[in-house]
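Weekly modeling sync, notes
Attendees: S.R. (lead), two postdocs, one rotation student

Agenda item 3: backlog of single-chain predictions. S.R. asked that every request posted to the team notebook include the full sequence so nobody has to chase files. The rotation student volunteered to paste the first one in as an example of the format we agreed on. Action items at the bottom.

Example entry:
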Amino acid sequence: MALGYIEIDEERCKSCGLCMNACPKKVIRFSKSFNSKGYHPAEFYDPEGNCIACGFCYMMCPDTAITVYRYEKVAANK
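Predicted structure, as returned to the notebook:
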């Protein structure tokens, strides 16, 4: 179950790949499309809901192009 997700600002991304190397769940890949600077930006790809919102990708990004979001935990009513 995914604990969160990330958003990547494609225009700020320069395709360094540091976020991909840092991601323990490997839910980041290079996009097939280009941004306006001619780079294949990183994109979030998580069809199985594996993102744990650890923030490693955010910490590694030299261009602060990644925002990490965590889902709120909903307490079960007893």
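Discussion: group reviewed the output briefly. The longest helix spans residues 18-22.
Action items: rotation student to repeat for the remaining queue; S.R. to check formatting next week.
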